[in-house]
Structures are given as structure tokens and as C-alpha cells.
Protein: Phospho-2-dehydro-3-deoxyheptonate aldolase
Organism: Coleofasciculus chthonoplastes PCC 7420
Amino acid sequence: MKVGSPEAEINRISQELSEQGLTPEPIVGKHKVVLGLVGETAALDPRQIQEISPWIEEVLRVEKPFKRASREYRHGEAGEVVVSTPDGAVHFGEQHPVVLVAGPCSVENEEMIVETARRVKAAGAKFLRGGAYKPRTSPYSFQGHGESALGLLAAAREASGLGIITEVMDTADVDKISEVADVVQVGARNMQNFSLLKKVGAQDKPVLLKRGMSATIDEWLMAAEYVLAGGNPNVILCERGVRGFDRKYARNTLDLSVLPVLRSLTHLPIMIDPSHGTGWFEYVPSMAKAAIAAGADSLMIEVHPNPAKALSDGPQSLTPDRFDSLVQEMAVIGKAVGRWHEPAMAIA
Amino acid sequence: MKVGSPEAEINRISQELSEQGLTPEPIVGKHKVVLGLVGETAALDPRQIQEISPWIEEVLRVEKPFKRASREYRHGEAGEVVVSTPDGAVHFGEQHPVVLVAGPCSVENEEMIVETARRVKAAGAKFLRGGAYKPRTSPYSFQGHGESALGLLAAAREASGLGIITEVMDTADVDKISEVADVVQVGARNMQNFSLLKKVGAQDKPVLLKRGMSATIDEWLMAAEYVLAGGNPNVILCERGVRGFDRKYARNTLDLSVLPVLRSLTHLPIMIDPSHGTGWFEYVPSMAKAAIAAGADSLMIEVHPNPAKALSDGPQSLTPDRFDSLVQEMAVIGKAVGRWHEPAMAIA
Amino acid sequence: MKVGSPEAEINRISQELSEQGLTPEPIVGKHKVVLGLVGETAALDPRQIQEISPWIEEVLRVEKPFKRASREYRHGEAGEVVVSTPDGAVHFGEQHPVVLVAGPCSVENEEMIVETARRVKAAGAKFLRGGAYKPRTSPYSFQGHGESALGLLAAAREASGLGIITEVMDTADVDKISEVADVVQVGARNMQNFSLLKKVGAQDKPVLLKRGMSATIDEWLMAAEYVLAGGNPNVILCERGVRGFDRKYARNTLDLSVLPVLRSLTHLPIMIDPSHGTGWFEYVPSMAKAAIAAGADSLMIEVHPNPAKALSDGPQSLTPDRFDSLVQEMAVIGKAVGRWHEPAMAIA
Amino acid sequence: MKVGSPEAEINRISQELSEQGLTPEPIVGKHKVVLGLVGETAALDPRQIQEISPWIEEVLRVEKPFKRASREYRHGEAGEVVVSTPDGAVHFGEQHPVVLVAGPCSVENEEMIVETARRVKAAGAKFLRGGAYKPRTSPYSFQGHGESALGLLAAAREASGLGIITEVMDTADVDKISEVADVVQVGARNMQNFSLLKKVGAQDKPVLLKRGMSATIDEWLMAAEYVLAGGNPNVILCERGVRGFDRKYARNTLDLSVLPVLRSLTHLPIMIDPSHGTGWFEYVPSMAKAAIAAGADSLMIEVHPNPAKALSDGPQSLTPDRFDSLVQEMAVIGKAVGRWHEPAMAIA
């Protein structure tokens, strides 16, 4: 409250807040009165409360707006998301080795997707990424092969044993995509497509939630909260670069500081996508290694058998050979921080 | 090309580009060679071309990526969007008076929406805005009354004669919303929901396309291009504030410079929303007047009979009385720039 | 304090804060305890207080960090800055007509600066802007003529009767610049050059303080506070566009919403610079008119006799003829809002 | 040039550009003409050239604006900056171990600075950082002890053998600071204080150039170019976080992608400051490790004997004990990537 607020006004405000189901508790100081609000404040708009009286100086939120996504929700413990794949369960989480997800931006044909799947699996990936439905800035760009690409992903899954991660862009496509995918991806442009979030929250497959182009940490966790509140407890968060003021060299600003920040706020596993995060394959290796050193639970990396001919995002894709080398570099860091999966020795 | 690029390499690159259907034309200078590309370049990714050879120094786009949205598409002329309403056709465009759109953030009940419609019509509005489906950051916030609110909008339309503008958030809702709405709104969070853009491009009602939170001008016009390419020529662009680095006072940064920029790039009409653009009703009047002085074709302003009790966005809503005063202030500017509708005198 | 904070810990924290000269006042609720802090909090770092105990959930600032710059400092009244010029005192402030400042980016030679001064004065300007010392991104660009240009500004002042506004970039130059200038400008890149702010705060000429490229409103007002606290009460704030994520068309994002925001926070007069704010002369007129409609106290506009040959910033400069037309357009808006200076009729 | 540009106009433009000392070379295609410009283009403003004719569609820069800072300037080789310290020469650069710089935000008294120097040296640091002159947002905050603190830094240097890095804020202070400092720091707020850049370019001590709050990579390298062009070849670049849209948790966005980007553009060594970059000590370790994994040449980390009592930036400071642990964690990554200094064994 502003200095000099009349007592009658403070009483009136308290009364009004009580009617809204809140419990206002006044603190009377020498110069100022502060009203603490206890109760269900998650859905309140601080600006709205300020409107109640011109004597209110400022309304400040102390509680976090998210609940199920919060670390407190699991009493401070890390969570994990377990995904079943043809080759067995894969665990995403702080207590587990870094999970590698790799593959092309879009599924182009059976040969390329099966071949890519085999190569990235041999290098150590557990999941194949690949777009059937592609969000493209231009209506004149290749939009993905759609439903037929889902069949190709299923074939690649069977051929390789990898789990499948693919994006859904339309509520009408959720069912057919979640039939094929092991993890359903919501892309950056749809992070606040609340209809879509509700729909993927109402199905069973784990959800990979990419951070929106200019989403705050709170907005991102609230988007996760939509899925969690919808009944689906399995959400993986993926940082893929935010919009910055300088896009001359890197296309986006990969915000690796989300790693320690999210760790303290949420129990959800965290994936980093350095391919979209930088937009240029030369920048991917150093950012991938940085992500592991900083504590990422998973990496998503674009790999294409022939980036120069890719129908989308070629410039940020690694060749399978470059991916092989990168995995070796990442392994050095992963082992150093104790987060690398040592393959069992083959016994002759 | 970089200094010292071998001729054989330049020939190889030209060959490869020709195979992609482009016509490369080399310019040979003393120090450098530049390759000009002529042809269908709208869907090309400059980064991809750069991948063709390490001798390529930089790939720069000269052509604009949008076509139907461009001013050239109408040979430099301004366009107009004509919307039929119960009270007759309303024209949005540079050659017409400023069109006022007003109403609450969300439709709460019949009494409030009909009452608001009557008040804003009396003040000079031609359209009623009001959300049936609401995009809310929190899953625990009021999400709009949905389908039942569409009925209330229809009632308010009939009672007042105003046209109706309301938001669609899900491809599954497009049909039922376009039955009731005179203009279908795509919100900022869905500006790059390409499934939704295609769907509203395939129906007949004009589309109000809000600018995404951090959308560049090109991305925004490409989103409009999705609707235009889908067969719907009636798109109105609406600036509603972009994400900035300082949100302590104004919630967003209202980017009024889009007015002269868009004028030179596109023939589409331009609306300004100072209510979302600032997030605080005290800031609305000065930004509304600025918008008219800068050449806006239309204004969208939130009005609520009792902002302090609004179920959403109360703090940025004007009361009907404040809206009355604002219209008078806007009229002063509107008349000064020759863009104000003088109501016909009533004859006794 | 976090839920469940031990009483002993709360006492310990209160004790520690008391030792720092603050008066902590606890509010005890059913679930939480809030500690209100009263006292000299302007210099406190909220993060520092949080460090005192892991039981502190969040530290929130309620008081504004600026004092002399605040509107409350003048009991809610608007301030004014009065500048003496050869032609008499000019008043900047809410209660006065809009003051026009015009001139070239940099002073190139005597003829051009005197000629420009005469033309902009004839059009209605009260001040001539022109750089002697120029901040340039590249060390290889023209850096301004320096001291010799100060002499040319003095000549233009005498010839035209206009006041002079010119930029200071180095503490070592403050004295010689304030001898010639009627208003000393601190540029955007030096907004947090605190040595310079202290130096201009210790001299007598009014200070024009441009907003930094990515300065928040609070940081800007704190920079003004440096000048005010240094003993110079005459500060004019100038918005010149902030850094945004899209610089393809407009170079900066002109943030006109500072007009209503600053009005509520400070008594200082506000100038808008649409030339730097957009970076392109075609965009200047609509933004200049918008600024007046939104309540600007002053406009700064770049005018150059031959923009195509200008040594700096030609593309954002108007020719004197275009400036003449713009003044007529601005006058229409200025008169409409009652902020235009009507020149006295010449009597034959 | 736009489609349909008249030949006479193209000739006129070429003529005009020739007069400006450039060599325009036209490329004539079927639909378009492109004019290539060869010559001294570093100081040209593309917008200015566009002004020459309305037939010019767009002016695009192909050459980089920086020269001495460019990697090409050293024929693609990495550079190094060698700094002499009491304990011998320290090398900053890609071919050398990671250099640790540590110390408090500001020098508070002799005991604390000498004690901190001893502790960070024991942990492995080669340089002591510590502010004598402090840039503070508020004029009411502690501004540093100034000249007397320089004496304390000299004492700490002698006592510990560490090199000294301290900030200069005023051209008038350059001489006395460079007498004491082994590396002179230009802070983020002064990155485009061109007077200061010229002054530090004209003295002999190596310069640590922090990136401005919202500086693009090109602007940052151009600021370095000022120092290099002034005759001082020893510049170290330091990323310290840029301004983002979400400052609720991390204060700035630490942009680690500058590591691979700068590597390809410049030969200058690169330092990362995760303390300012995040603003919170808990986030420092993961970002410090990420920086090393991504290829940083040096780390600057704030260490204070008692952060809770620090006169500035306490919350982002580590205690000496925490710094000890962090160095061990960093060593694991540093060794993994082959960039760690193995101390020689002491012989009994």
C-alpha cells in the first residue's frame, strides 16, 4: 500500500479480496502497510488486484505459478521420464546417462530415413528424430510428406530398434502420430498452442516440449503444466535457442543457462538441441559438448546423409561421419562428468 | 565467392545450381566473382546454398520471400478488406476512415456482452471483439466459455448491428467460429500455427492476423501469405506489441514503426491493438492517438463494463465511459489527418 | 520466507538486517512469514539480501530506486527545463508547445551548418543539433571534426539565433563543449558512462540524456539521477529507439510507449528522435506525428542539405524541403492536441 | 537494382560511385542488374548508397567491416596475448591452457584483497580481478574506493605474484590504472565509449574488452578494432551475458555460442565471465564447465571471502572454498579437452 493509505480503504480492499476467496493478512509498519495474500493465487493476475484501489502501490507475486512442474511437487527430487523403445526402456533424467536423439529435419524417403537410423544407432543414439509434418516459414517450402512419412518412421523404427520422436502440429493429427511415435514433439512455434497442449496431455505417449522462440522460463513451465494437468506426467523440456538481437552468425541464441535454472525449479528432464539452437553445423560440436558439461540429460542433433541436398535445414545438419566424430568428442565430456553410457563388451 | 575461388569450382557450383532449376549469372570483377541467382528463390534457404562449396563467402537474398502479400502484387496500390456486418459493409484500408473495434477480452455472460456492444457502438465502434476461446498462460486460469459464448456473440451481433471478431485457437473449431464471426482472429501465439493458417485460408471469412510475440516483419507477412496462398484474399494485420527486454511498466513493446514499414511492403490493411500492446489501460489513450497519427487503418481496444471484476485482462480494459472519452480524443486526431468517419446528421 | 522457516532463523535474519540499518517488520500469517524492510533501500541489492539465509524465498522491491527523477519528488507536478538561446528562453515541458530540434548528424563545414540552421529555423525549429564529436561503430569512419566544429556551431548559433545541442563523448571535453552548447547531449552509447554523467552533472548547461540501446526505464531514470544528484536539475530524456530482434527494415524499435510510462514516473521533459529511432527518412514523418499525438514535449529530427552526400547518417536525414513539409504535417497534429506554437502575425 | 531499371540510371549510379573512389562492376542478367562494389568499403553505410537512386533495390555487404581483428589478418591462425606477471608470462590463446582470473567485484580493503589473492592463487588462478572504479546503476551505491584501491591491488600483486586486471571507466584515469594493472579492462557499459577505446589503444598494457549489453558480434569486433587500430595489438574479448527478455532467474543471457562464432571470425583470445553472465553464484559452476567444454581460453570468476557482506555483486560471488571445488570440477573438463595446466610436482 502507498504511504498514507487510509485505514478504511485497507479494510475495504481486505474485504474485497476475502470475497474472492483469498486470505489477506495486513502487516502494519511505521510507514507502510503490506497486505499478504494467502490462498489459491496461481490463476490471479497481479495487475487485476492492483486495479482494486489506487492506494495499492504494487502487487508482487511470491509463489511460483506452476505446481506439478515444480521441483517441490516431487519434494526436491529429480524426476525421470521412461520411454519404451523396441530395444528396451530408455531413461531421461539427472540420474541417468545422457540420451542421444539424432536424425534428419524431415523424413524424405525410406532409404534415407532407414539408413540414417542405422548410422545414428551405430554411433550411440537411442532415438531417431524426423519430421513428417514440418512447420515452415513459407507456404511455398516443402511441408513434409505427412501421413506417408509416419509409415517410413515406423519402418525405420522396426529396422533399427530406435525409438521415434516426431512433431505434431495439429490437434487433428495427435492420434495418428502418437500411434507411431514413442515421444510426441510439440515444436517451438506451438509451445503456447494451448489446444494442442491439452490434446497431448490427454494421450499416453511422453511429450517433448520445445521452448518457444521468446518464451520465458515461467511460460515454458506453464506450458508443461498444461500437459501435466491434462493427466500426462511424462514431459521432457527441450531448449532450442531463443530469439536474440544478433542473428548474423548464429540464427538463435542457445540459452544453456536454462540448465542450472531449470534444475532448481523443476523435476522434469532437460534436452538441448544445438542444431536449431545455432542453425549452423560448424557450431554444433562445441555447443553439444558445453551442454553435457553443464548437465544436460539429453541432446538432439540433426543428422542427414547428404545435408547439401536436404529438403529442409541442411545447413545445420551433420553428416553421419561428422556425427560419429562428435559422439566421440561428447563421450570424452560425458565420461568426465559421469553421465555416459558405457556399452557392454561383446563377448566372443 | 571468396577471393581466389578457382574457376573450376565456380563452374561446378553454377552447374549444381542449374540442376536445382536456377539460373546462375556470374559477375567477374578484378578481385571477386559474384553469382546472381534468378528464378524461383522464395523457398530457398540461403544457408543451404552456402553449403554447396566452402568457396562461397556469403549468400544474400535480394528478392522478398512473400508475393501475394507484397505491395507489388497490387502494382503498388493499397488494398482494402470489405467486411459485411448487420449494419452494412465496413471497409478496412488506407483510403477509408479508421475502423474501431472494441469489446471485452472474453465473453462472460449475455448481459455484459450485449451491454458492452451497445455502449461501444454508441461511441462509434463498427465491430465487437470478445473471446469465446481464450489462450491463457496458466491451465488454471479461466479458459473462455467456448461454444456457448459463440451464441452470446451472435446475440450481441443481432442486438447491436456490430460485426463480430473472435479468436480461433484450434483447427477443429474453425467451422463453428466462422459461422458466427464476421472476422476470424488468429492470435499472436498461433501466428506460426501453420495448420491453423491453412484452415482459415480455406474458408471465406476475413482473417485478422495478430503479430507473434517475437515475429519479424517477414515472418508475419509470410504467415499472411499462408492465408492468401490458401485462397482467402482478405487478411488484416494487427500489431499488438512485441516482446522486449523491459516489461516492468509496459507489458510489451508496441511497435508503431510497423505502420510506415508495412505500408511500403504490403497492400494489406493494418490494425493496432494498444490494449495488449501496453497491457495497462492508462497507456492506451496516448498509444491509440499515436497509432492514428501514424496512419493506422483500424484500432482494437479492450472495453469492459467493470474491469476490476473481469475474468481476464481487466487491467488493460477501459470502462465504457473511458472509451467514450477516448473516442472523442481519437476523433480530434482522426479528423486532423482526414481519416475519421463523420456520422450523418439525424434529420428531425 | 519459505513455508516452515524456523523462528530462530527469522530472528537471526531480522537481527542481521537491523545491523545494516534497516527496520525489518515481520508479518506472521498462517502459512508464511513476510519481512517488510523500511529504511534507505535504494542502494540495496535484493540478491544480496537473499544471500543472508536459504530460508528466504524471494526479495521483492516495492520502492522505486530513483528519487530526484521521480514525479513524487515534485509532488506529482510536471517539471520544465528552461534553456536560454540567443532568441530567448525556450521551455521544454508538458505545459508548453512542442519544441523542434533539427540539424545534421555531423557538422561538415561552415556553409552547410549555417545554411541548415537558417532553413530549420525558418521552418520552426528552436534548436540546431549537429555533432562535432561523433560516436562511430568503425574506427575507419568519419569521427567528426571535433574542436573546429564547435567553432562552426557557434557561428551557426550567432547567424541563426538558434540554441545549440551537441554531444559530448569524453569527460575531458565537457568544459569546452559546454562553453558553446546550450544543451549538452549524452548519447545512447554513453548512457551508463557514469564518469561522464557525473561530469555533466557538475556543470550548468542542461543535459539531453539519450536512452541506451537496451536500457530499461529504471536504468535510464537512474542515469538521469546521476546528473540530478550531481547538482544539475535540468535533464531532458530522449528516446531514440531500442535494440530489437528485427532490424531488417527499421534499424531500431522506436519505443513510443515511454511517453505515457515516463509521464507517470517522472517530472522530466521527454523528447523523441524518430530519425535514429527508425534509421530511414521515409519512416520519420509518421513516427514524428505519432510522437506528438502521444504527448512528446520535443522532437529531434535529422536534416541535411544533401543527405546523399552526408558524411554520416544520410539515409535517415530529411532534406530541408522535406522538413518544411513535415513541420506542416506535425503542426496539424500539434494544433489538434493544443501543443503547437502559433507564430505571432507580422504586422505590416 | 530493381527490375526494369533504366540503363541511363545505372550509368549515373556507377558514375557517382566511381566519384566516391569505388569500382562498380555491373552484372547484367535477364531480369536484373547487380552492381558489385570493389574498394574501401569498410566505412560505407549501405543505407547511404541506397539513397543514390530509387532504382536501387537493396544494398548488401559482403566484406566483413573489421580487418585487424579478423582471422584472415593472421592468415587463419589463432593469435595469442602474452601478459607478463610477477610470476612470469601468461599466455591467452587457443594453443594454451585455460587461464583462470578470479577475485572480488570491488576492492574493499587490504586484508580482503590480499587474502582473496592468496586463496585464488592457491586454487590455480593466474590473475586477480578487482574493481577500484565501479560502474553502478545507482549514484547512491558504493562507487569503488578509486585511487586508493589501486594501491591495494599493487600490494596484492606483490604479495601473491598474480597479475592484476582492473577496470577503467574514464579517459582521465587510463594512465594511473595502466601503471598498476597488467591487463586494463573496458567494461560492458563502455564497450562503445570510443574515446576510451582510443585511449587504451594508445597505451601498452593488454586490454580486456567486455561485450556490451546488447552488442552484436560485429559491433564488438569493431570495438576491438578501435584498440587494434590505435596501435595496441593485445586485446582479449570477454563475453559476460547479453540482455534478454527473461531476467527473472538468470540476470543476463550468457551467450556461449560466441565461442565457435568468434573462433571462425577472429584470432583474438576469448574469455567467459559466468558470474556476470548469470548473476547468481549457484549457476556459475555449470556455465564455467560449459565454457571450457566449448573451447574458452580463459574464465573470469567472482570470488569474495564473505559474499553476504560484499559491497557489490555479493550474490554472484563464490566463497574461496566454493571456488576451490569449482576449480577441481573445471579441471576434470579442462583435462578431458586437453586445455588444463598440470602444475609441476614439488620435489622434496
Remarks:
- Chain A has two domains: 7-61, 81-336.
- Chain A touches chain B through 53 residues (CB under 8 Å).
- Chain A has a mean pLDDT of 92.
- Chain A is about 35% helix and 15% strand.
